[in-house]
Design a protein that fits this description.
Elements: H1 7-15, E1 20-24, E2 27-30, H2 31-47, E3 55-59, H3 64-75, E4 79-82, H4 89-98, E5 101-106, H5 111-117, E6 123-125, E7 140-141, H6 142-146, E8 162-167, E9 176-180, H7 181-195, E10 202-205, H8 213-224, E11 227-230, H9 233-236, H10 239-249, E12 253-256, H11 258-266, E13 280-283, E14 293-295
Parallel strand pairs: 1-11, 3-4, 3-5, 5-6, 6-7, 10-11, 12-13
Antiparallel strand pairs: 1-2, 8-9, 13-14
Helix pairs in contact: 1-2, 2-3, 7-8
């Protein structure tokens, strides 16, 4: 029986290592690669002194590297606290303080944010090096991560242990909600049966990591052994590009809030009997709080 979220990665890597796990543009990561890379980062965090139950903030755009980091934090026995890279710096500072963050993993286009944040929390940079001229001095970089063994790190995490802390985006003062491994596992196992998710699925990764809907995007996909197709931020901002993304990616499942579907419909971005591969459209306001509704692709037109 699955006890923790990372167990799904282990199962897929052991049985289907060459199957695609995460796709974004031309980048494709297999389950075997996702397992090995997250093991290396988990070992790096362990060597850096991170221990079971520690809160590790994650500040980077949604990407295969960010998904790898999320899994690695779980494998190290810690709690990921994903941050919104677009949030005001003061809000980020409040979240880091409120969750008692012990480490901050960062990467991508967040150097300016880190400069302004000026946190005293140790930073792990998930890139080869920080851009020249920066005052950021990370404790480790991706070069260090690649030197670690790919063998799995043994941790004693249980089903009822906290898995993540999600800070509600709507509240003026950051309020954290603790979600256990069991919370997510229960929902994902129900959803997988209810929606008939399988290894043949190509599933959207539209929700940003700092909202709870992303838990279903990510772990629903990995539980089914399917492909997670991450939606780039610039594509999300343009409904016509978004419609093209669904077509080109040949998605079989789409999950988002109702506003996105309304924008697609109002912009006439979807034609009659469009998206021939799309089997289900799931619309929900909150994965672990609001029941999802399933629509057929014809309902989008």
């Amino acid at each position: 029986m699955v006890e923790t979220l990372q167990d799904w990665i282990t199962i897929q890597a052991d049985t289907r290592p060459h199957a695609s796990a995460v796709v974004m543009g031309d980048e494709r990561v297999t389950y075997g690669q996702l397992d090995a890379r997250s093991n290396q980062l988990a070992r790096t965090l362990d060597a850096a002194g991170c221990r079971r139950g520690d809160r590790i903030c994650l500040l980077m755009p949604n990407s295969p590297a960010a998904i790898t980091a999320l899994i690695a934090i779980h494998k190290a026995g810690c709690l990921p606290v994903p941050l919104d890279p677009a949030a005001p710096v003061e809000r980020l500072r409040q979240i880091i303080e409120r969750c008692e963050c012990t480490y901050l993993l960062a990467g991508g286009s967040v150097v300016a944010t880190l400069e302004e944040l000026r946190t005293t929390v140790p930073i792990g940079w998930l890139g080869i090096a920080v851009a020249g001229g920066s005052s950021i001095a990370p404790r480790f970089t991706f070069r260090d991560v690649r030197c670690q063994p790919t063998a799995r790190l043994q941790t004693r995490v249980r089903r009822d242990d906290p898995a993540t802390i999600v800070f509600t985006p709507a509240s003026p003062t950051p309020r954290g909600v603790v979600i256990t491994h069991g919370n997510v596992i229960h929902f994902v196992e129900w959803a997988r049966r209810h929606f008939g998710m399988s290894t043949a699925d190509r599933i959207s990764g539209h929700s940003p990591l700092h909202v709870d809907q992303a838990l279903f995007d990510i772990f629903g996909t990995f539980a089914a052994g399917a492909e997670l197709h991450l939606v780039p931020a610039d594509v999300t901002a343009d409904v016509r590009q978004l419609a093209d993304f669904i077509r080109v990616s040949e998605l079989t499942q789409w999950f988002s809030g109702p506003a996105v579907l309304e924008q697609l419909a109002s912009a006439d971005a979807v034609g009659p009997r469009d998206f021939p591969t799309l089997q289900r459209v799931i619309c929900g306001g909150g994965t672990l709080r609001t029941p999802a509704r399933t629509m057929s692709s014809d309902e989008m037109t």
